[in-house]
Design brief:
Helices cover 44% and strands 11% of the residues. The protein is of the alpha/beta class. The radius of gyration is 27 Å and the shape is globular. Pathway: Cell wall biogenesis; lipoteichoic acid biosynthesis. This is Sulfatase. Keywords: Cell membrane, Manganese, Membrane, Metal-binding, Transmembrane, Transmembrane helix.
């Protein structure tokens, strides 16, 4: 047999053929997920796992050998595809925990399709071809029969053991790595996915009796002032929270070719307490996580959406706190209340009432529910009814129209985009936020006309980022460079605005200290004069603190945090982490410290421990 004939014969074996196919798919996945892949690392991580599975097929299968190879091919392809798509939005490696989100996929299918570059679909090409060949091609059937024999050789067994050892060698030294991205890159994606399934989850909780507000404040660097600035300035006032969908801070005062993008938010910020250095702290649950964090001052769970992990708990919350001071409470959202398990979340938070999709009657539907115009029109009427009662009210209003992928109907356009922004992700985002701002302006005017505005403290913030760094193409990156004047960064991505407004309560002032969504509840509590001495919380009153420490999860690797000086992203730990100074590239800035890194991790563990040990609610 000639060398060329022998080579062709080897290449026709399922073992070699499917190895080549899956390594090509692995290369695509690494290119998208890790940026600049190193072929040798791909070989050392993905290949041993693939061979470990294939040697098992060779050892035990005969008649169904090719079918099993195709099944493994399909399974690994599905994993790689899920990793690509999840990373494109969240910037993290998907794990089995995301299966809890499966029932949400159909609702967000427009967002999913918008992230899909057509060439990603080539990852399924071979499976389609094999399926067609299996039905129609006689040569394929002959090849399948020809390979239908077990490969129980010493070489097969030795290759299995070698592959297993290499996989273990990749996994075991990297178990303590803090960054999930680094873990997946060092272990290999397939080994990492297996590790997350088999690894024992950390339930070494700190006893609740050992978790005190004093210890939390010490870790955060909080010093309690006496007297407290703004204490009781909004006593007896209504409290309205406006949670703006996907609203990032760069939109404030943004002009494109002289056109003001968000004039109403600009006016609001200019006449209020405005915090430009405010950051999201949400995770898998996005908008619903923002609702959870803001109303509890706890961090999101390490895995899963807060609405699905913590909604069975008796949660200390802002609605419950304000009800002690005689407030009536309600929340408004035009989506189905079952989406992200909100019905249970609202019960756990203690809202008296929720107004969801049924209340808004599916009028003028965009994406998941009625438009912001319908939301604000009906909500304004209901808030007027609540204001006419003897009790003050707390209302959280969740906007939604400016939702990813931002392709609002043409009849909602309130501006004409410059040509260079047309048919771009950034352009669609800006146009949708321009509409959201237009609708917000109508709402504010209605509240001023019906007298609710003058009797209320109004808190406005973005729920989460709108432009994931990982989803941008070259045109989008250039447009953001034009807007920012520098390369779009992780800190820019996480930055959302916070605006505190109130007639006779606040003044026109820009406050530069950093803050996060976990700080909203303590800040409101100070303004209305509600003591949090008996309520564990992980945020701080932004009106009386200058230093802050913000642990982050999900959109950034676990162990990431923000302090006054920098955003920090860990590698295996602190030593190989990356510092992104807030002072700007090329300017002198103190890096985030290792002590801050350790304290941020302790804060996350304290929050996880405390919330996990809260008593369960009796489900009604």
């Amino acid at each position: 047999m000639s060398w060329s004939t022998s080579t062709k014969s080897i290449l026709k074996t399922p073992f070699v053929l499917f190895t080549i196919i899956l390594m090509l798919k692995g290369y695509l996945t690494w290119a998208v997920t890790f940026g600049d892949p190193f072929p040798w690392k791909l070989i050392l991580t993905e290949l041993p796992y693939i061979w470990m599975l294939f040697t098992l097929v060779e050892f035990f299968a005969s008649k169904r050998k090719v079918s099993l190879y195709i099944l493994i091919d399909l399974l690994i392809t599905a994993i790689y595809f899920a990793v690509i798509m999840y990373y494109k939005y969240y910037g993290v490696i998907v794990t089995y925990h995301a299966l809890e989100q499966v029932n949400q996929v159909t609702a967000v299918r427009n967002s999913v399709f918008s992230l899909l570059d057509p060439y990603y679909l080539f990852i399924f090409t071979d499976i389609i071809i094999f399926f067609i060949l299996a039905l129609r091609n006689e040569k394929f059937k002959t090849w399948r029969l020809h390979t239908a024999k077990k490969g129980r050789s010493k070489g097969t067994f030795a290759l299995f053991i070698l592959s297993l050892v290499v996989c273990l060698f990749n996994i075991l030294p990297n178990r303590a790595s803090m960054s999930e991205i680094t873990q997946a890159q060092e272990m290999g994606i397939l080994s990492y996915e297996t590790y997350t399934i088999l690894a024992k989850e950390n339930t070494d909780w700190i006893p609740s009796s050992n978790i005190t507000q004093e210890s939390i404040n010490e870790l955060k660097g909080v010093t309690l002032p006496s007297p407290s600035a703004y204490w009781q300035k909004a006593e007896g006032k209504n409290v309205i929270i406006l949670q703006m969908e996907s609203f990032q801070n760069f939109l404030i005062d943004l002009k494109i070719d002289g056109h003001e993008i968000t004039p109403n938010m600009n006016k609001l910020a200019a006449g209020s307490l405005y915090f430009p250095n405010f950051y999201q702290q949400v995770g898998q649950g996005n908008t619903s996580d923002a609702e959870f964090v803001v109303n509890t001052s706890f961090y999101i769970p390490p895995n899963g959406a807060a609405t699905q992990v913590y909604a069975n708990k008796h949660l200390p919350s802002l609605p419950k706190l304000l009800k002690e001071f005689g407030y009536q409470t309600a929340t408004f959202h035009t989506n189905d209340v079952e989406f992200w398990n909100r019905r249970e979340l609202y019960a756990a938070l203690g809202f008296d009432k929720y107004y969801a999709q049924e209340f808004f009657e599916d009028k003028d539907v965009i994406f998941f529910g009625s438009s912001d115009e319908v939301l604000y029109e009906k909500t304004a009427d209901k808030l007027k009814e609540m204001d006419d009662q003897e009790k003050p009210f707390y209302a959280q209003v969740i906007s939604m129209t400016a939702h990813h992928p931002y392709t609002i109907p043409e009849d909602k356009y309130q501006m004409t985009l410059p040509e260079r922004y047309e048919d771009t992700f950034v352009g669609d985002y800006i146009r949708s936020q321009n509409y959201a701002d237009y609708a917000l302006g109508q709402f504010i005017e209605e509240l001023k006309e019906n007298g609710v505005w003058d009797n209320s403290l109004v808190i406005t913030y973005g729920d989460h980022l709108g432009l994931p760094l990982y989803s941008l193409d070259n045109d989008d990156e250039e447009l953001l460079q034009e807007i920012y004047g520098h390369e779009y960064s992780y800190a820019d991505m996480m930055n959302i605005p916070l605006i505190i407004s109130g007639n006779g309560i606040t003044s026109s002032r820009v406050l530069e200290q950093i803050g996060g969504q976990v700080d909203v509840m303590p800040t409101i509590a100070n303004l209305v004069g509600a003591s949090l001495n008996q309520q564990i919380h992980f945020g701080q009153d932004l009106l009386n603190q200058s230093y802050n420490l913000l642990p982050e999860r999900y959109y950034l690797p676990t162990g990431s945090f923000m302090s006054d000086s920098a955003l920090f992203l860990p590698g295996n730990g602190y030593e190989d982490g990356t510092h992104y100074p807030f002072a700007g590239e090329g300017e002198d800035s103190i890096s985030a410290t290792e002590a801050e890194y350790e304290r941020a991790l302790k804060l996350l563990h304290l929050s996880d421990s405390y919330v996990s040990q809260l008593p369960d609610r009796v489900q009604e």
